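Students often ask what a holo structure prediction actually looks like on paper. The answer is less mysterious than it sounds. You provide the chain, you provide the ligand, and the output is a string of discrete structure tokens encoding the 3D arrangement of the protein together with adenosine-5'-diphosphate.
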Amino acid sequence: MSGRLEVDTARLPLLLTELRLPAIGRLWAEMAERSDREGWPAARFLSTIAELEIAERARRRVERHLIDARLPPDKTLDGFDFAHVPMLSRARVAALASGDAWLNRGKNLLLFGPPGSGKTHIAAAIGRTLVENGYRVLFTRTTDLVQRLQTARQDLALEAAITRLDRYDLLVLDDLSYVRKDQAETSVLFELISRRYERRSMLITANQPFGEWNKVFPDPAMTIAAIDRLVHHSDVIEMNVESYRQRAATNRKARSAPKQATPPPEPPIKDPT
Ligand code: ADP
Ligand code: MG
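The corresponding structure tokens follow.
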């Protein structure tokens, strides 16, 4: 009889599949060998492979939630040039992207600024980081969401549709000021805002600050009521900077223009020393 206890591992892949432990299924052999080699106590081996499974689950969950969030691709915090938006500090954005302080209290974030000022980019980047930090986010153009909710209302399913959106810690409504009340019945947007009030967060971007919002909602009373709810617990950031694209174009011109436009530089004055 050998001194070692023989273990029948032939059934293990089957058992792990049955238990839905794919990471352990993939890694147990390698980890077991290491554990034997290094003489780990059994408890250490068990907790190590359990941690691996948990980490893998978290990674897959984030992957699923990123797909579900429908964020525009390539808009990341790393790719955002904070120097262009002096009123928006990297530290403030980092705090927002960590989530806890505002999402857990259903607070809102409102971003205003002219076209090209980077609202969509920073909203998407914050959304992406929040998903990576374990939050659920849905990014949508406001007009698309309004349309979806209107369809739901026609099917007498508005309540259910709004309730389904509760699973998102954050709704990013991009370009709210593109919604026009005459194009469609926008009281669905008001319903959404009312239902999420003080419970679930929204990040709203708009070219126009509140003064123009009476073009969005069906009547002035509803506009005031909507703004009131949004602003009550919110951060407002006004990104009053020129268009990033335009500035990039201007910089390109500025770099290439002098070659033809300005006379050749004077020959350097000889330093007598
Ligand atoms: P807005 O939504 O305010 O109209 P966008 O976020 O769509 O502006 O920005 C326009 C383009 O410029 C996008 O391609 C965006 O990625 C880029 N952009 C805007 N601001 C910045 C910035 N501060 N750093 C890097 N890219 C930026
Ligand atoms: Mg935009």
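The chain has a mean pLDDT of 89.
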